[in-house]
Design a protein that fits this description.
mainly beta, Porin, eight-stranded antiparallel barrel, 8% helix, elongated, binds nickel (II) ion
Length: 232
């Protein structure tokens, strides 16, 4: 076979080959993009749980703002339709505010905290066609590691100390879609709902020695990510 015939055959073969769009068993998919955690932050009222005033309900509630970071997905296709996926991200940071408590000095920005919410999910891709569009649904387990809780300068000058929030285990649900731009590169968009519940505590010895207040927060965020993926 001469060279031009060979290259013509290769071109013909390439054109005839079906576009391998569908995700297939053994595929490794890496996605990266902007990820936003938007907490619902339904909270209990703020209660004094330690010290001479223990049992006092200060009323009010806690709120958290949203934050956007770099999100990563590591996915592996177990079959042509089922995969497992790990969500990772650079650390999120949220401001924590108290509103409407009976203690005016406590209202306002209490401080901030950081967290990492790794989530391991089972994901189902219903389309087994050669469709370039690959929607999916998933469910999994989230562990949210909360760290670096720090008080605002206002809260410190109002006598607050030792701000802490508990880590959380919970379920996570997601819907998303990949759109294959080439055989390897995809666009991705996804939405998750993650059940994250924490209990925050803060001390204030200037009110009375040993005084600690607690608030239970259903952080329960919607998590949005858009980005690009690469299939190996
Ligand atoms: Ni919850």
């Amino acid at each position: 076979m001469n060279k031009s015939l060979l290259s013509a055959s290769l071109v013909a073969l390439a054109l005839a080959a079906p576009l391998a769009h569908a995700h297939e068993a053994g595929d490794i998919i890496l996605r990266a993009g902007a990820i936003t955690v938007n907490p619902k932050a339904d909270s209990s009222s703020v209660k004094v749980d330690q010290g001479p005033l223990a049992g006092t309900d200060l009323g009010g509630k806690a709120t958290m703002d949203s934050d956007t970071q770099l999100g990563l997905n590591f996915a592996y296709m177990l079959t042509n339709n089922w995969g497992i996926e790990l969500l990772a991200a650079t650390p999120f940071e949220h401001d924590v505010k108290l509103k409407g408590t009976a203690l005016p000095a406590a209202n306002g920005k209490l401080g901030s905290l950081k967290h990492l919410p790794p989530t391991l999910s089972v994901v189902y891709y219903p389309l087994d066609s050669k469709s370039a569009f690959q929607p999916y649904v998933g469910a999994g387990i989230n562990y949210t590691w909360i760290y670096d809780e720090s008080l605002s300068s206002e809260a410190k000058s109002a006598g607050f100390s030792n701000f802490k929030a508990k880590n959380s285990w919970g379920l996570a649900w997601q819907v998303g879609a990949d759109y294959m731009l080439t055989e390897h590169v995809m666009l991705n968009a996804q939405v998750r709902y993650i059940d994250i519940d924490t209990r925050a505590t803060v001390e204030n010895n200037s009110i009375a020695p040993g005084t600690r207040a607690k608030v239970n927060v259903d952080v329960d965020p919607f998590v949005y990510m858009v980005g690009l993926g690469y299939k190996f």
